[in-house]
Amino acid sequence: MGKQALFIRHANEVITLKGSSEKPMTKEQMEELHIVKGGSVWLEDGKIHAVGPDEELLATYQARLEEAEVIDATGQVVAPGFVDPHTHLVFAGSRENEFNMRLQGSSYMDIMNAGGGIHATTSATREADHEQLYTESKRRLDKFLVHGVTTIEAKSGYGLSLEHELKQLEVAKRLNDSHCMDIVSTFMGAHAVPGDYKENPEQFVDLVINEMIPKVAELGLAEFNDVFCEHGVFTPEQSKRILEAGRKHGLQPKIHADEIEPYGGAETAAEVGAVSADHLLKASDEGMKMMAEKGVIAVLLPGTAFFLMAESANGRKMIDAGVPVALSTDCNPGSSPTVSLPLIMNLGCLKMGMTPAEVITATTINAAHAINRGHEVGSIEVGKKADLVILDVPNYMQLQYHYGVNHTKTVIKNGEVVVDEGRLV
Ligand SMILES: N=CN[C@@H](CCC(=O)O)C(=O)O
Ligand SMILES: [Zn+2]
After folding, report:
1. Cβ 326 vs Cβ 276: under 8 Å
2. Which pLDDT score, from 0 to 100, does residue 225 have?
3. Which of 312, 395, 393 lies closest to 354 in space, CA to CA?
4. Share of the chain above pLDDT 90, in %
5. What's the burial of 55, exposed, middle or buried (CB within 10 Å: 0-12/13-18/19+)?
6. CA 29 to chain centre
7. CA distance 364 to 360
8. Quick one: pLDDT band at residue 174, thresholds 50, 70, 90?
9. What is the atom index within ligand 1 of the atom nearest the CA of 118?
10. Are the CB atoms for 186 and 223 separated by under 8 Å?
């Protein structure tokens, strides 16, 4: 029998982000990590019971030390488990051939319009059975965990028919039930117009609205509804219809916006009151202003810009404009086949002008708010889930300074050690 409690002691820095559970952090709030130096955390019953200076916790728990497994975090950093708020976790196959084509000069959209891209992964995902999808996606999930991620969002969108969208969402549900990672599901039937609807995209929009959304909602398979609002995919008007239909069925709106071309996606997000607008490489100043006014979270994906060899979204400008910013891998087989949130943090600093403190906020509490989990995870506060990472660096700035390295040493999920010395337990 394991011990009843876990006592993490004497970290160089415990990044608490205290007081951030109510709403996402903006502007200079994103710099305030509320670090406890020489800090300790007591975990019990899967929850955080106490956090503070080591002497204080020792005084409180002296009589109960025998009950706890003790982890000495001297010289290391303790942070909230990282949250990845935008992934396409469940899919089959890979697209390294397209990567090579892009290196020779083909564009992402040209490949998609020629029947590759999202369509290629849709074919592979339709062909795969539940078991294969489960096995491939579980492997990715394990890797996310090793990189310090303890809560993840997962979108459908490689089925593009009711049957196959449900299959993807059911796999995500099974993973959530069987894996220690918490998975928050998003329905994204409007990820692309499938080939057989090419001549009549409105008919596909109607299918998403009248058949897919009601069924997904009835089965309780998703919390969010997302759409790829992009020139040649779904227009802002179609996106609005789809997102408003989702809301009527209890699915909250998210949107892939202004990724390839400026297309009014940020404005659309503000108009429909989306929880987040994601990508935003080409978002207009007016769109950013509207997002700031409405409190729409910008989920920025610098790995996608990096991999598509495009200029990153202007994270600096968005933060200064008062937009709450979160960061994510966008893990998918086409535009960002990575599971490394630590690398995304590096790119946040190096490509988007964000500070090391801002990227921590963007991958913890702001990322949690982007999937409505701000009350549960994303900060180290009493009562929250005992989801923590221990990072093998003496201060948080070294996470970004020693770039390209996974510094995650230990991952604690629901109060249990699930990664130790960088390996799955
Ligand atoms: N851009 C739209 N959807 C994904 C990519 C999907 C794919 O290429 O398979 C994204 O967020 O980058
Ligand atoms: Zn995406």
Report:
1. yes
2. 99
3. 312
4. 99
5. exposed
6. 20
7. 6
8. very high
9. 9
10. yes
pLDDT exceeds 70 at position 1: no
Which of 274, 134, 254 is closest to 186 using CA atoms? Answer: 254
Would you say 87 and 330 are in contact if contact means Cβ atoms under 8 Å apart?
A: yes
Mean pLDDT of the chain: 98
**Residues in the annotated binding site for Zn(2+):** 86, 88, 256, 330
DSSP one-letter string for 196-250: GGTT-HHHHHHHIIIIIHHHHHHTT--SEEEEEE-TTSB-HHHHHHHHHHHHHTT
Q: Coil, helix or strand for 310?
A: coil
Residues 6+ away with beta carbon under 8 Å from 285: 321
Residues 8 and 30: their CA atoms lie apart, in Å, by 25
Banded model confidence at residue 2, pLDDT cuts 50, 70, 90 = confident
How many separate helices (H) and strands (E) can be counted in the chain? 17, 17
**Ligand 1 centroid to residue 282 C-alpha, Å:** 15
Q: Residues 307-315: what's their mean pLDDT?
A: 98
| Closest-approaching ligand to the CA atom of 258 | 1
Q: What is the 3-state secondary structure (H, E, C) of 312-361?
A: CCCHHHHHHCCCCEEECCCCECCCECCCCHHHHHHHHHHHHCCCHHHHHH
Question: 279 alpha carbon to ligand 2 midpoint, in Å?
Answer: 8
Give residue 3's pLDDT band: very low, low, confident or very high (50, 70, 90): confident
**Which positions make up the binding site?**
86, 88, 95, 158, 191, 256, 259, 330, 332, 334-335
